[in-house]
Amino acid sequence: MLNRLLRRTATAMSIAVAVAASASCARRAAPRSHVVLMKDVGFQPAELTVDRGDTIVWKNEDFIPHSATARDASWDSKAINADSSWSFVAETAGRHDYYCVFHPTMRGTIDVR
Amino acid sequence: MSIPLFHNRPVTLLGAALACFALVACKPSGEQAADSAGSDTMAAAMAPAADTAAPAKPNDAQIAHIAVTANSIDSAAGVLAKSKAQSKAVKDFAQTMITDHTQVNKQAVALATKLGVTPEDNDVSQQLQSGAQTSQANLNTKSGADFDSAYIDHEVAFHQAVLDALDSTLIPNAQNAELKGLLTKVRPAIAAHLDRAKGIQKTLTSGS
Question: Among A22, A42, A76, B132, which is least packed by CB within 10 angstroms?
């Protein structure tokens, strides 16, 4: 009787551990925040790889306005003034090229995994 | 703060180079293409003259005045272009010129105030003003696509001249570290303006 109870308990615990482990594997790492500086009329870093759900924050450290505008027009910060920032949550996997509409020589890429 | 004076006569290579932009830029595009007068005139102005062996060496107060004058001129040209331009690309560019050059001037004035420097009028600034008046008068006679081309040609020549002046005279001669830093920080914006103006110039020339 005692043996049977112990066996059941062990089985239940094994299942619980397995389910927990499985859930842990399936769960993504907690969303992170990444900063892209707008500095010297450029994006720093110009290329960034993030996970879905991560937040990207563009901070303008120049004294002229800039934008972060997707080439495919799917997102657009509009003007980000000096000492201001704008953030965007990356939801769509893929490579996203963007630029500044005011200074088109400013180009960047966000790679969303 | 050390205040070196201009070497030789005050009408210098920098002044000649910056002042001639208006005359160069206001030539019709076709005319420029035909005789390459724009680049030739600019090159001639930048070449050493017999009586100006040394380059201009403006002091910090004069550099601040030249910077503020150049920014004000291009901002004013932007205001004119915003009201007269035909194409959206040219109008948008003009708005960026107004915004950016106004911001740069705010920084320049704030720095001069902080440093206790009174921007000092000089022959280069006066030549800039004089050239701008000629340029503005010429642009005022144009309309539609002709205006767009003339304005963008003007902007290409102006920003190229300013970039050259920053590299050859203004940044090297700035004595105060913060002034030098401001000019250095402005440089990429001028280069970006030049690239954008050249891009628009190309589309206007090709008619696309």
Answer: A22
Please give the Cα distance from B18 to B12 (Å, whole number).
Answer: 10
From the list A77, B85, B165, the residue with the least C-alpha distance to A106 is A77
- From B189, B191, B196, residue closest to A64, measured CB to CB: B189
Here the ipTM equals 0.74
Question: How would you label B181-191 residue by residue, b for 16+ Cβ within 10 Å and e otherwise?
Answer: ebbebbbbbbb
- Shortest Cα distance from A61 to chain B (angstroms)? 11
Q: Which of residues 54-113 of B touch A (CB under 8 A)?
A: 92, 96, 99-100, 103-104, 106-107
Percent of chain B with pLDDT over 90: 68
In B, which residues are within 8 Å of A37 by CB distance?
none
- Is pTM beyond 0.90? Reply is no
